[in-house]
Protein: Carbamate kinase
Organism: Paenibacillus puldeungensis
Amino acid sequence: MSNKQKIVIALGGNALQSKNDEPTAEAQLEVVKKTCEHIAEISNSGYEMAIVHGNGPQVGRIVLACETARDVVPPMPFDVCGAMSQGYIGYHLQQSLRYALSKRNRNVPVVTLATQMVVERADPAFKAPTKPIGPFYTEDEASDIAVKKGYVMKEDAGRGWRRLVASPLPRRIVEISAVKKLWNDTIVITCGGGGIPVAENPDGTLEGVAAVIDKDFAAELLAEQVDADILMILTEVEKVAIRFNTPEQKNLSHMSLTEASQYIDEGHFAVGSMLPKVQAAMKFVRYNPEKKAIITSLDKAIDALEGKTGTEITFS
Ligand SMILES: Nc1ncnc2c1ncn2[C@@H]1O[C@H](COP(=O)(O)OP(=O)(O)O)[C@@H](O)[C@H]1O
Ligand SMILES: NC(=O)OP(=O)(O)O
């Protein structure tokens, strides 16, 4: 048995795409190459890891491409679009991480696992979509789409209007035993985009459903299941803040469960962005008070693991 610390890393949108470039596959690959330099450094510092990534922009574009081409080829169902997003994002990560590791004389195998995540059909999220996907639109374009396609459209953090889809809670990772078997000598990219959402039928069969699961909650469930020491959520900001984006912003180096609950009640964390990250971190340390969660940026990941920066969330 290895005595290395085990980390589950959740990669945010900025690890896959630059805000300034066209959202092409080529542009994504360039960003992912840089992301993988950081991940290779973490691996090189002596951690075992699994990687979970987001897919909101990507799955939205795949769905849109299918809709646009519907007169030529039959459109793919939503769950299949989720699986396709896992495939191509995983491929970019696999290729880039393999290279970044080889530059450091490390030949750790990297593999992407198409991963299904069981959700409950009765999850209230199916009646109230919250997950923004795909491209941004103007308000006029968004109302047009809402009328023509019946989609729920919402303004997304001052950046434009986006389609919202249901985001039910992840309940069970179908391929978890395969992840555990691979863990010791392989870096597994799993639960991508929160996992392909599936519901379980009374006879035990699984069936894809239209949803996008939150990848931070999925990463948390994975961290519990593999008994990870650390859940590391990598996003754009170095630290979680209270009074974020105000002249009184205060960056936090540490939050206990009690403090985090208080800050949530006071409304410091934006719904759909920082709130699920803090909630996922809290769930992990509540599940096992010996463990910790870290929220930080990709380029500060190593410093945060050394306790020099980031926001650490612990039980007390
Ligand atoms: N209290 C807060 N502290 C820090 N960042 C916050 C806070 N509230 C909202 N944010 C914003 O949330 C963003 C992270 O959410 P998001 O971009 O949706 O995540 P992801 O990296 O998973 O794509 C941060 O980059 C920051 O702009
Ligand atoms: N599935 C998911 O949470 O994707 P984003 O992080 O891109 O929103």
About this structure: The chain has a mean pLDDT of 96. Residues 12-14, 54, 235-237, 240-241, 244, 268-270, 273-274 surround adenosine-5'-diphosphate (ligand 1) (CB under 6 Å). The radius of gyration is 19 Å.
